[in-house]
Every structure is written in structure tokens, then in C-alpha cells.
Amino acid sequence: MSRAEMEAITVADAPDICPTLLYEDAKAAIAQLTEAFGFTADAVHEGEDGRVVHAELSYGNGMVMLGSKGTGSVFDRSMSGAGPVGVYVRVADVDAHHARAVAAGAEILMPPTDQDYGSRDYLARDTGGNVWSFGTYAPGAAG
Questions:
Q1: In what order do the strands lie in the sheet containing 52-59?
Q2: Which regions in the chain score pLDDT beneath 50?
Q3: C-alpha span between 52 and 49 (Å, rounded)
Q4: In the prediction, which pLDDT does 12 show?
Q5: Three-class SS of residue 62?
Q6: Starting from the edge strand earliest in sequence, which strands make up the sheet with 131-135, in order?
Q7: Is 5 within 8 Å of 71 (Cβ atoms)?
């Protein structure tokens, strides 16, 4: 397979929508997202000062990008004063995922709960104050 074919597959498999988050302590956020919530750190780039300027973490076929507040980038300046975000992640086993998060010390806002629309979800807050929903709901799926 040629390099161009490999790059085409990589681009084709990348998610089309990617939440972007900024943290006071991006290293702590990466630790929590990987240890408590099961994300994989695919790329972590640090500036000369050791702060994370850009990171990509994946979960299943989805991804989030994150970095440190205060870098002075256009995105950092644009996000100044913005509130935390909410991110939804579909997981296969909500209760097992929740148990992992609890064991890692994550702040749980709602324990696993069966919803009227058929999903089972739980809510947690990350180190930057962002709210993460983990559940069985498949956004965009027919039903």
C-alpha cells in the first residue's frame, strides 16, 4: 500500500466532529480521561514550557482534542471566558465504565440511570469542570 493510500485511509477513518477542550492543567485532564474514562492518548504535544499545546485522545471511533489554557493561541484567546462544555460518549457497558471512573476518583454527578428514551447513562465532571455523559444512546441512529 502506498503512503498516499495509507494517509487516505487515516483521513477517511477520522471522526468528522471532534469536541475541543481547554484545561488549566491539561496533563491532569489527560491522566483522568485515560485512567478513569478509558480514552487512549494518541498524540500529546508539549510546548517548550512543558504545557500541553495540543493532544488527541480517542475512544472507539470518536476523538477529542485538548490543550492548555493560557497558550495565547487564537483558539485559546477565543475560548477565554467561555463556559465548560458537555461531551457525550457512547460506551458498551455503562456500569463497568462507571465502576472504572469511580475507582479512579472521578466526580460522579449522576450514577448509571435508565432513561425514558431507552439509554442507560451516567454523568461525571472532569478536572476542568466539563460534564461528560457516558451511555448507550447512539446519536443519529434510527429509532
A1: 20-23, 62-68, 52-59, 40-46
A2: 1-9, 142-143
A3: 9
A4: 64
A5: strand
A6: 86-90, 131-135, 120-125, 107-114
A7: no
